[in-house]
Write a structure and sequence with these properties.
alpha+beta, 2 domains, 6 helices, 373 residues, globular
């Protein structure tokens, strides 16, 4: 059937009113398993030229439910989805087209169990309801394309997907369905700081932070800015009053506080030193309190073991500061993501993980603006 083309603009998918249903054959085709996933977040960019429109969405892999607890545990296990290692299922469209019958199709890439494969969604319904969109689309996914090959015959190879989406129009950057071009101004009211948490000579963090900012530059839902701690030289905490009182005396503190207050969310780029974050980053965080409150944070780390232990310490610190931290994180290994341990050349799999991080962070940062209002 044909579907109405929605008005151009940026729309945020409402996970609470959206659903992803699936069905697949089992028992050598004699039966059908039905169930669903929960969406985490997503955006729909409708362009002036509809073929230039773009869709991104992320589902919670661990939310897989089919009404059979034993089967659900099996599907979530390493045998199938491996939700502990790959908690997200993501879709990013690459093109849109309409056929002679007026049927719209979204071509894109689906990432499941960390493996990306092409998929085509056919839009079966699209309706504009004030500032909201109601969409329905279907697709067929070949699980073998994602390296999920267990129990052939007993579990069907192809999975039919039905997506029912509700989305609300949001203020956004150029509503063209494409990344903003150089010199083009983002219209989003959301500001995210990418805080580079290392000041050492020859630091590896600069390449990591530049990569994050570069990937974020394609976003239209928020403006991202690099905040380099090397540009904000702070002595060891030298304020007499606790930061929670907000009675800052030093000019360096006031300058730092004013900068951090500009943003709605943060991406902390941290090395791992002695199983923790860097001293300079911890010091910079400790200087302030109210400027961090009721905002959103995400973490990017690097190190011999990916820097994961630094992130765990930062999560505890963020919680004390009423800084809400999203689940998705990026961890880069000195062995596999750096050439000669110094030149940043990340593996391609991090691109999809970064999209998930940006989606989660922007959703939480936008929601928390209402808390601070």
């Amino acid at each position: 059937m044909t579907a109405e083309v929605p008005p151009p603009g940026e729309y945020a998918i409402d996970p609470a009113r959206s659903a992803i249903a699936f069905s697949a054959k089992h028992m050598f085709g004699l039966g059908t398993v039905r169930g669903g996933f929960r969406l985490r977040s997503g955006t729909i960019s409708v362009a002036e030229a509809p073929a230039d429109s773009h869709v991104q969405a992320v589902a919670d892999a661990a939310s897989f439910a089919s009404g059979n607890a034993a089967r659900d545990r099996k599907v979530r296990s390493k045998t199938f989805l491996d939700t502990d290692g790959h908690p997200d299922i993501g879709f990013t469209s690459t093109s849109a087209e309409v056929d002679a019958d007026g049927v719209w199709r979204l071509h894109g890439l689906l990432t499941a169990r960390g493996v990306q494969a092409p998929v085509v969604f056919t839009v079966t319904e699209a309706e504009t309801l004030g500032d909201e969109l109601s969409l329905a689309a279907t697709a067929t996914v070949d699980r073998h394309a994602h390296g999920i090959t267990a129990l052939n015959g007993m579990a069907g190879r192809h999975v039919h997907i039905d997506a029912a989406i509700r989305a609300r129009r949001i203020p956004a950057g150029p509503p063209s369905g494409r990344p903003a071009q150089q010199g083009e101004h983002h219209m989003s009211d959301l500001k995210i700081a990418v805080i580079l948490g290392s000041t050492r000579p020859g630091r590896n963090g600069k390449g990591v932070a530049d990569w994050v900012v570069d990937r974020a530059g394609a976003r239209t839902g928020a403006e991202y800015e690099l905040v380099d701690l090397a540009d904000y030289p702070l002595p060891h905490l030298d304020e007499a009053a606790p930061p929670s009182m907000g009675q800052y005396q030093g000019e360096h503190t006031k300058t730092w506080a004013a900068k951090i207050a500009e943003f709605d969310g943060y991406i902390f780029v941290t090395p791992e030193y002695n199983h923790s974050t860097s001293g300079v980053l911890k010091n910079a965080i400790d200087y302030l309190y109210g400027e961090w409150n009721n905002k959103a944070a995400a973490f990017v780390s690097y190190g011999a073991l990916g820097g994961a232990r630094a992130i765990e310490h930062l999560r505890a610190i963020a919680s004390e500061l009423q800084l809400a931290h999203v689940r998705q994180q990026l961890s880069f290994s000195l062995f596999t993501d750096f050439e000669n341990y110094s030149v940043f050349k990340p593996a391609g799999l991090h691109d999809d993980a970064a999209v998930v991080l940006f989606e989660q962070l922007e959703s939480w940062a936008r929601a928390l603006k209402t808390v601070r209002a």
